[in-house]
Amino acid sequence: MLRSSFFSTATLRAAAASRMPVTRSASRIAAQAIHDLRIAETPEATRTDAPAEETKTSKRKAPSKASSRKKARAADKDADEAVPQPPAPKPPAKHVQPVAASGGAEELVPAELTFSFEVAKSHLIGVDPRFEDIFSRLKCRPFEHLERVDPFRTLTHSILGQQISWLAARSITHKFIRLFDPSLPEKPTDHHGPDTFFPTAHQVIQMDIPTLRTAGLSQRKAEYILDLAARFADGRLSTEKLLEAEDEELYELLTAVRGIGRWTVDMFAIFSLRRPDILPVGDLGVQRGILRWFLSLHSPDYNLTISPKKLPRPDEDPSADSQSADPDVLPSLAETSQAVPDASSAPPAPATPEELIPKAPTKKRKTKAAAKDSDSDNDNMLPTPFTPSIKKTLNAVPSTMDIPPLPKGLTVSQLKTRLEKKTKIKGAFITPQEMEELTAQWRPFRSLAVYYMWALAEESK
Fold first, then answer.
1. HEC string of 132-199?
2. Which domain holds residue 129?
3. What percent of the chain has pLDDT above 90?
4. Number of domain units in the chain
5. Helices 262-271 and 247-255: angle between axes, nearest 10 degrees
6. pLDDT tens across 164-210, in order?
7. CATH code assigned at 224
8. Basic and acidic residues compositional bias: what residue ranges (predicted)?
9. Is there a domain that residue 55 lies in?
């Protein structure tokens, strides 16, 4: 009954289609009617439910090799993206409380770590045994020489020393302090320790820009200082908030201040807050050190050494006369010991491309007295000279060491060429993503390893 009814309907539709004018619509109706007739005449045992378009037998073009390769790469990419990344490990955190300061000044960062230094050392030595000799011969100063830190004072120093030599910064800092204590002598003097006088944030915000400029500050720096002081005075910033903030929250809090960029926050987090897992991806000195460290690991013919003179020290400012292309990147976070409250909080300056190019040596005459004084100073400043054994340690890869692979697409030859003058990537030695991948095994104690990256140098041939 149903079969004959369907057949009759299909017949009528076909007949009607034959009487319609020849138009596109009529053609489609006629084609559908013929298709319905064919279905009606087909036995149920052999009938399929496939749509009309799928009953056509057309020869499909075989995919090209290039198309297959593209699809394979896309599938690999999708597979890589589908693999869940493990969360970054975090060291056992120890909460520290701010230390009260005298005279109504901002609370201080206590002279203690939030993690176990011995655990951090063991972790780094475990993933790369070459760290063992370095730790034993050269102290990791920010994390072993602990002193209290005044965050407002340290960040103020960073702004005052922006893009000028340390001597100029020292002079301006002294004049700035004299605005609040005229009894100080006119000649710049040392301002050691957090207990020496420094204006509070509430005192600074009482000053206007013209008065601040009499101390040698530019219009912009005066605005930066007032913005920083206002945030500490009204509570948007405080020692407690800086100590309790997670790393990303710390960046948000401090980069909101005019004149403070991400590099400054990195240095402040390492040298003042002593955070264990900071990777300054924008510092060329760190980039170069990481590149050399891993190049020596993957290339037996690349010899590496360590230069204590290149490490940040409180008695010397490596940022003298250096300039930064980014106005938010401050060349000096805290000056030398003549003008910083905390020796352990004095970081290096970000290396500029010009500073990384070796300069021709110049001969300087010295009197015997001057030479004697210089040698005496160097004896007091520098650590014990390294013996050849540390070079042997740095360049010998233990057979039991699990050498991490280089990031995808990065080869040993590329690492070598990037150390040359004209083969950087937009002015950088390695990209932030490559730095993250290379140093993944150092987590969660990358700050300690980063400190030594400034000191790595290619061995003289």
1. HHHHHHCCCHHHHCCCCECHHHHHHHHHHCCCCCHHHHHHHHHHHHHCCCCCCCCCCCCCCCCCCCCC
2. 102-322+329-357+387-458
3. 43
4. 1
5. 130
6. 998 899 999 999 999 999 999 888 766 556 568 899 999 999 999 99
7. 1.10.340.30
8. 38-47
9. no
Q: Which two tokens stand for residue 354?
A: 């010009």
**Which strand (E) or helix (H) includes residue 458?**
strand 456-458
Q: Is 280 exposed, middle or buried (0-12, 13-18, 19+ CB in 10 A)?
A: buried
Strand partners, 189: none
Q: Which of 253, 314, 272 is nearest to 113 (CA)?
A: 272
CA-wise closest residue to 9 among 27, 24, 17: 17
* Residue 183 included in any domain: yes
**129 or 4, which is more confident?**
129
Look at 267 and 336; give whichever has higher pLDDT: 267
Q: Nearest Cα to 146, choosing from 115, 173, 123? A: 115
What's the CA dihedral at 364, 369, 374, 380 to 10 degrees?
170
State the DSSP code for 89.
P
State the Cα–Cα distance between residues 324 and 332, nearest whole angstrom. Answer: 10
Give Cβ neighbours of residue 343 (< 8 Å, ≥ 6 apart).
145, 147, 314, 337
Q: How many CB atoms within 10 Å of residue 291?
A: 22
Going by the DSSP 8-state scheme, the letter that residue 346 receives in this structure is -
Confirm if 162 and 259 have CB atoms less than 8 A apart: yes
Q: Distance between CA 174 and CA 191 in Å, rounded?
A: 8
- Residue 209 is encoded by which pair of tokens? 């820009």
* 29 assigned to some structural domain: no
pLDDT digits (tens, 9 = 90+) for 43-95: 544 444 444 444 444 455 555 555 555 555 554 444 444 444 455 566 556 77
Residue 383: name the closest of 170, 166, 145 by CA: 145
Count of helix runs (H) and strand runs (E) in the chain = 21, 2
